[in-house]
Amino acid sequence: MLKVAVVGATGYTGRELVEILIRHQYVRPHYLTSESYAGQKFSDVYPRFRGLCDLPLEKPDNDRLAECDFIFAALPHGTSMKMVPGLLNTGRPVVDLSGDFRLQDPGLYPVWYGYEHCHPEYLKQAVYGLPESNREKIKDARLVANPGCYPTAVQLPLAPLLAAGVAEAEDIIIDAKSGVSGAGRAARQPYHFPECTENFKAYKITGHQHIPEIEQGLAAAAGRQLKVVFTPHLVPMVRGILATIYLKIKARIAEEKIWDTFREYYDSEPFIRLLEDLPETKHVSGTNYCDIAFRLDKRSCRLIVVSAIDNLVKGAAGQAVQNMNLMLGLPETAGLLQGV
Amino acid sequence: MLKVAVVGATGYTGRELVEILIRHQYVRPHYLTSESYAGQKFSDVYPRFRGLCDLPLEKPDNDRLAECDFIFAALPHGTSMKMVPGLLNTGRPVVDLSGDFRLQDPGLYPVWYGYEHCHPEYLKQAVYGLPESNREKIKDARLVANPGCYPTAVQLPLAPLLAAGVAEAEDIIIDAKSGVSGAGRAARQPYHFPECTENFKAYKITGHQHIPEIEQGLAAAAGRQLKVVFTPHLVPMVRGILATIYLKIKARIAEEKIWDTFREYYDSEPFIRLLEDLPETKHVSGTNYCDIAFRLDKRSCRLIVVSAIDNLVKGAAGQAVQNMNLMLGLPETAGLLQGV
Amino acid sequence: MLKVAVVGATGYTGRELVEILIRHQYVRPHYLTSESYAGQKFSDVYPRFRGLCDLPLEKPDNDRLAECDFIFAALPHGTSMKMVPGLLNTGRPVVDLSGDFRLQDPGLYPVWYGYEHCHPEYLKQAVYGLPESNREKIKDARLVANPGCYPTAVQLPLAPLLAAGVAEAEDIIIDAKSGVSGAGRAARQPYHFPECTENFKAYKITGHQHIPEIEQGLAAAAGRQLKVVFTPHLVPMVRGILATIYLKIKARIAEEKIWDTFREYYDSEPFIRLLEDLPETKHVSGTNYCDIAFRLDKRSCRLIVVSAIDNLVKGAAGQAVQNMNLMLGLPETAGLLQGV
Amino acid sequence: MLKVAVVGATGYTGRELVEILIRHQYVRPHYLTSESYAGQKFSDVYPRFRGLCDLPLEKPDNDRLAECDFIFAALPHGTSMKMVPGLLNTGRPVVDLSGDFRLQDPGLYPVWYGYEHCHPEYLKQAVYGLPESNREKIKDARLVANPGCYPTAVQLPLAPLLAAGVAEAEDIIIDAKSGVSGAGRAARQPYHFPECTENFKAYKITGHQHIPEIEQGLAAAAGRQLKVVFTPHLVPMVRGILATIYLKIKARIAEEKIWDTFREYYDSEPFIRLLEDLPETKHVSGTNYCDIAFRLDKRSCRLIVVSAIDNLVKGAAGQAVQNMNLMLGLPETAGLLQGV
């Protein structure tokens, strides 16, 4: 069994990594770090893991990291930027789950994240970790920037359509909805149970930091620059993202052509499910699947694509493990083809 | 106190009518009908109302209806169509909460509702009951067709923008989300608690029966025919609708112009709240308010409008009472300006 | 309209007081205080109240308090103790919703609340505000200590049984369950939506501060000292308390005798509903009712009593308004006989 | 890989069996039956399993059953009674998850289940499948009656205390709370999302069919007949049971003695976790653990024991797999030591 480190193990993505790793056939969690909970056990913070994972939480230490074969960084953005270069110095391959190494253009960080990038030289080296688009590069990468939850739910259904020219690269409208775990583990007023349950709202309209990541990925697929409208919403549930995406098409496109495009791209992909029925977040809950369906609205010449993922699995920890599998030469689906 | 009948009192809209009417200053529920529960009391079906409303549930009877000063029909669509003419024969004014008298063109019923209208001659006489657009006609109406929940949440924010020409009448995309009470009281698999909680999904894409109602209302505002893309979603909560609407604008429109348009239309409207913050369904829960806010996306020349209503109040029973108030010459806000 | 002050208006009980008072026929909220939010409007903190209550939040001020006819103190325990004497100095009658004036024996405060009472001289003057047991004293009181949520749900069903000697005063076991609003408005980890939803737990077993209040009330009913076992639990819902209470009875007691006892005490009580069906928290939600039912377990000679209240209404703000009505000589049910 | 049949695969316990079996190291689901859904795939009924388990659903057939090495019966009680003898005729070992073979005394079926047992001759042969109490007999059994969810949550914490004489066998009060999946998959009014969410209630007080099963198990532990008071409640969540149990003890018992008793029984048990903190249902969700803690109430000489399980795992499918492992000579924890 290979040894794995999770730096920042007590946030929700760190927790989900542990959940997946303790079931993995080829690796096991070996070293878990936490600034806030150092000295406690992982199962003190998450009592569900008593007996399943009682590893101690420690302050990050290079010698301990060097004992491991692989490192996940599950840190807040802004923090990850500062820590990851040190992690890479151990010589171990790293998957970073934050947004800090996803954008190739360092100039986008001040605009969308509100800070200058302190290590822009790593942005070129970082490989964007969407295996369905980028598998070969991931295999050779030392640093993989694991995609954001919304960008995963958006790029997977759109990349084939844009690459094949089936949908137009203009006027893309993305209406996305996420469960509350996407907001992280810190208790704050909007996520206080009595405020959050029985409530639905939009947030960060026109300003969400995942917009440039989505545009970067879709531009690569389309082979041209593009802009999207992206509106995230908060759903009173724990897990899941559903994205409803409105695309322009030519009037005379046939439904079958769209099916063919998806099938061509995804028929051998282990984690993409093309559906006739509409996706529901419960159907991907605890799995690494992305479910995709579409409807043609002939009245408006719009193609409406719906995708669903578990934001903590395919949108974070599951995809990170998928990337690790690729980087370590393990079977890509190891640890991921059963429910979490 | 005027006497009011609720025909079909045991569905969720009937229940909500009773909830509002028992607090109304000028009227009181007098006669409640139910096919399925005749012989029981209203409070047998809804035990919360023990002591608040213990009226018997009876099979509909014309003599009993004629004792009343006003009639609400809270029946399923398809059924209402057959019953309402008889209710009107009592000589009492009627608000119908179904979809059966909302569309002026009878030819739309087979397309969107799946049946021929059996009384198309009433469609011309019926007044569409959106007071903010249609107040004077409602005052004189004998039959008011109470708007659907989604159409209310969509028309209220869009009518001013289209009427003023601030937004274009083409390429309107409506992404709407509703709580589960919108699906009614009948227990069915998708609404079984373990299936429905922790789940989010889209449904009836391109085919929802509220589409022609929305298009009819917006066409009247815009002064021209138009088509919309409308996608409803199901949120794991009981009450509330939030609509996120994407509109095209001219590149150089100023935010202030949009504010002015809304203010001009709505500054004296008692149930419209124009907000700088984004609406949330919890903020309208149990109220007759429609909350509206907007954001300009200068990158895409799109105007994003967000509205929120309580689907059972402004989206059904509250608006029905507002219409009743207008039809009976009562203060328009009677019974409606406090939380439910 | 009489003028009412709410000192500490932004907690959940303060919010609920405002909710009830804006619908009250004889009084209206006039002066709302908040330490943390002074300078904002009430509707800034609770946007649902925009247009319904836009009063400013102010730091408490004696002159402003003296403008009012009545004062509610909705402060945390420990704080209320220090503030209430000053409120009484205005000469206005006061209902205090904290636990600070409920216990007659000052020696209980260090044991159960963890602090010495700084104004024990007020404990004798304070009248315990359970109208069903204490109505006449409340009418003449200047300071009413509004009962706790759990003590209300427990005393209402038990007082008649103990007073009539139908149940034994020994070996009383109370298993109580509360919605999350009982934990207050402050965001904390256990009430963070992803932690709190889909979770159920017991807390503070043998040590909850409501135990001495329950024992004091039941002892008065029974005419002797007694002890109870009390276990509170947290239910993943916002509102409601359900108490399941296990009592010893004599083997040969008839069910009818228990019904008679309840009816004798409660038949003319406006807010007690004796039921054959078992209570459910949804049936009292937003109301000032206490629903009560019982079952005799002949196999064990135990009487099982179940009661349900809305913890924020009959368990806090509704009962406080009921007390205010009594103290001001208004109809006892004013503002309370419709759903919130 | 051994081949396993699930007879009645589309109920919630059948679904959970499939969930566990597809991750099991030594067995795999081979044959799934359903009366209602025969002809469809398992993943048509549960779309989450697309790609994970796409087995067809078939009408039960003896030849197909005989292909399997092991049979689970996950049928409603009353139906199972009629089917299980036929399943045993295949010669394969069977775990029955219904209540139909749990009670040794056939005379209890008419009283608690409302029907005569049609095959009382199998009751003696059936082994009660609580491995922590009955491991050796289970290993040799051909028919194991898998315990009920509530009885599991009650017997695991109480058996050691009664066997050791630490708690008295009289006056046992069990206040139990279950998530909604315990009510099964059929959509019915009380479990309709808008009725069920934000609601808490007791049900079947004094009459739940799990009472005789609990009494039978506890009597075996105590070595004498006994009666319990048992009150189940419905919690608005999907999974989990929490039992709060009130026991009489002798005044002078030391806390350490109780710890010793539990440790002696359970220290080597893989699925029992003895805790100092109080159990929470979320901490056992998706696991086969039973978490147990206790508090001594010295004021009342009561011992309060709290246990938590996942009703679908340790309370049904997980325990069934644990029994299968024992019956097939596999490692007892196979397939069960990771989260579901």
Structural class of chain A: alpha/beta
CATH topology of the largest domain in chain A: Dihydrodipicolinate Reductase, domain 2
User: What is the domain tally of chain A?
Assistant: 2
Shape of chain A: globular
Discrete helix count of chain A: 12
CATH superfamily of the largest domain in chain A: Dihydrodipicolinate Reductase, domain 2
Instruction: Report the average pLDDT across residues of chain A.
Output: 97
Helix content of chain A: 25-40%
Portion of residues in beta strands of chain A equals 15-25%
- Regions of chain A with pLDDT < 50 over 5+ consecutive residues? none
* Distance from first to last alpha carbon of chain A: 20 Å
Oligomer status: homotetramer
CATH class of the largest domain in chain A: Alpha Beta
**What is the radius of gyration of chain A?**
19 Å
Biggest sheet of chain A: strands, sense, closure? 7 strands, parallel
Which series of helices and strands of chain A comes N to C? EHEHEHEHEHEHEHEHEHEEHEHEEH
Q: Find the count of extended strands of chain A (DSSP E, 2+ residues).
A: 14
Overall CATH architecture of the largest domain in chain A: 2-Layer Sandwich
Biggest β-sheet: strands ordered side by side in the sheet of chain A:
3-2-1-4-5-7-6
Interface with most residues: A-B, 44 and 44 residues
Characterization of this structure:
4 copies of one chain form a homotetramer. Chain A has helices at 12-21, 42-45, 62-66, 80-88, 108-112, 131-140, 149-163, 193-196, 210-222, 255-266, 281-284, 313-328, and strands at 2-7, 27-33, 57-58, 70-73, 94-96, 127-128, 143-145, 172-178, 201-202, 228-234, 241-248, 272-274, 290-297, 302-309. The first copy, chain A, has 340 residues and is α/β, with parallel strands linked by helices. Chain A has 2 domains: 2-146 and 315-328, NAD(P)-binding Rossmann-like Domain (Rossmann fold); 150-311, Dihydrodipicolinate Reductase, domain 2, CATH 3.30.360.10. In chain A, helix 1 (12-21) crosses helix 12 (313-328), helix 6 packs parallel to helix 12 (313-328) and helix 7 (149-163) runs parallel beside helix 9. Chain A starts with a strand and ends in a 12-residue tail after the last helix. Chains in contact: A-B, A-C, A-D, B-C, B-D, C-D.
